[in-house]
Amino acid sequence: MKTDDLIAMLASGPDVAAAAPPGTHWRAAGTVGAGLLASVALMAMLLGVRPNLEQLALLPDFWIKVGFVACVCLAAWHVSRRLCVPGASTRALPLLLALPVLLMWALGAIILNEAPPEQRAELFWGATWRSCPLLIATLSLPILAAVLRLMRQLAPTRLRLAGAAAGFAAGAMAALVYCLHCPELAASFIGFWYVLGMLVPTAIGATLGPKVLAW
């Protein structure tokens, strides 16, 4: 059963149904929920919730940040699920992942262009650029473990790609958790440094995928 020939057959066979096994959704919710709770606990222990979060939540930029990260989460989770179903179409998945990022980059570019020249560096670098990607990557680790465990119970065939998708989904969910602490609101900051933080677990997942997802 655990052979490259079987994987290739499942990936290319015309009669394979692109449907997840029964019970997958409940199992996914429980497994990923546990990883997400562990990430929240880690954030609370290491960083804490920002004391002025209520004031930040009154600002439109805060909800633009949260909305962007939430859209990336949904897109990355959908991609991860599709890569666990042999025979499922994946043609549109890169565009699905790229769309929210490109929109945030466009918004950031507009804001930078309209800002006075002396403020542009601050809008891009913020005050936490050194720690932001590392903290997102750290918070993603329990979620990455949960998503990889879930994928291992399913049937991914492109193991490195599936691992990378798991890492990106974990990074996006960790970024959502990190929003409870992060003071940064500029679209140019979020579009670059948050995405960089998501790419760290993506690289980790791509490395681990062939090792932990083989079946």
Describe the overall structure.
Helix content is 73%, strand content 0%. Helix 2 (24-46) crosses helix 8, helix 5 packs antiparallel against helix 9 and helix 7 (132-152) crosses helix 8 (159-178). The protein contains nine helices and no strands. The chain has one domain. It has 215 residues and is mainly α. The chain has helices spanning 4-12, 24-46, 53-56, 60-82, 93-114, 117-125, 132-152, 159-178, 187-212.
List keywords for this structure.
215 residues, mainly alpha, 9 helices, 73% helix, 0% strand, transmembrane helix, transmembrane, membrane, Anti-sigma F factor
Q: How would you concisely characterize the structure shown here?
A:
The protein has 215 residues and is mainly alpha-helical.
How are the SSEs placed, and which strands pair?
Blueprint (H helix, E strand, L loop, with lengths): L3 H9 L11 H23 L6 H4 L3 H23 L10 H22 L2 H9 L6 H21 L6 H20 L8 H26 L3
Helix pairs in contact: 2-7, 2-8, 4-5, 4-8, 5-9, 7-8, 7-9, 8-9
How many domains is the backbone divided into? 1
Report the biggest beta sheet as strand number plus sense, adding barrel if it closes: none
**Any idea what the shape is?**
globular
Terminal residue distance: 8 Å
Protein name: Anti-sigma F factor
Organism: Janthinobacterium svalbardensis
Keywords: Membrane, Transmembrane, Transmembrane helix
InterPro entries: NrsF
